[in-house]
Specification:
The chain is built from six helices and seven strands; from the N terminus they run αββαααβαββαββ. It has a three-stranded antiparallel beta sheet with strand order 3-5-4. Strands 1-2 form a two-stranded antiparallel ribbon. A two-stranded antiparallel ribbon has the order 6-7. By secondary structure, it is an alpha+beta fold. It is globular. Strand 1 and strand 2 form a beta hairpin. It folds into three domains: 77 residues; 87 residues, no CATH class; 63 residues, no CATH class. 41% of the residues lie in helices and 16% in strands.
Length: 241
């Protein structure tokens, strides 16, 4: 679980309340364990549930329950803690996302445009048009458009978008994968800072190596762990080339 305003939510309470509501929905007691993580920009919780019902039968969660049911329960519980999400909350959440080096809700909006208006998925880029000065926009739509334009400027700085003139950009189709990889690298840097051995030179760049292309790597192990998304192991090593 990664609530939008995780820094304002009591995650322990949210997790317990979520499990209690899931037990009512599923009609069985659940055995579970959870861990709060505050080592990324967004505090979140990992929950593991034993796949066995009270009766000893296998506990099966439908795809719809996992994707929609749990999300709906968690959303309601967050609302109980924080109150209803206002337009100002939404605008503030997007404003905070503009400069982040990860996949954001603004990026997902741009991706939706790519799917709806640029169906040729074989192309390297898709086109995005935004005009905050458009007179027909509502205040909310204008705010979102301004955030889109500011985000596109950040993607331009990252080499993921190119300006094609006033109000028009072309965005790399693989920018989602690049942003997800960037987020993983940032999370690993935080883990390194919190739990790893200090680097001998903080100016050293971080580079992802393809083990299939290597016969050996010689260096000093700084930290190792497991990627939270892919569940693959990783190791950060200081290497002198």
């Amino acid at each position: 679980m990664s609530p939008e305003f995780g820094d304002r939510v009591d995650l322990s309470r949210l997790t317990r309340d979520l499990i209690m509501q899931m037990e009512k929905e599923l009609g069985t007691h659940l055995e579970w364990v959870a861990a709060e993580h505050h080592n990324t920009e967004h505090p979140h919780v990992h929950v593991v549930i034993r796949g066995v019902r009270d009766s000893g039968e296998t506990l099966r969660l439908s795809r719809e329950f996992v994707q929609q049911g749990i999300r709906s329960i968690a959303s309601d519980l967050c609302t109980r803690q924080l109150g209803y999400r206002t337009e100002l909350d939404g605008a503030e959440a997007e404003r905070r996302e503009v400069t982040e080096k990860r996949l954001t809700s603004i990026d997902r909006r741009l991706l939706k445009d790519a799917q709806e208006f640029s169906p040729d998925m074989g192309a390297q880029f898709f086109t995005v048009s935004r005009n905050p000065a458009q007179t027909s926009l509502s205040d909310m739509a204008r705010s979102r458009t301004q955030h889109d334009v500011a985000r596109l400027a950040v993607l331009y700085q990252m080499g993921l978008a190119e300006s094609m003139g006033p109000g028009s950009w072309r965005v790399r189709r693989n920018f989602e994968q690049v942003l997800r990889a960037t987020q993983r690298t940032t999370d690993r840097q935080r883990t390194l800072a919190a739990h790893g051995v200090l680097m001998s030179d903080e100016r050293l760049r971080i580079e992802v190596l393809d083990l299939k292309q290597l016969t050996s790597v010689e260096g000093r192990v700084l930290v190792h762990g497991k990627d939270e998304q892919t569940r693959c192991g990783y190791m950060i090593t200081a290497v002198r080339l």
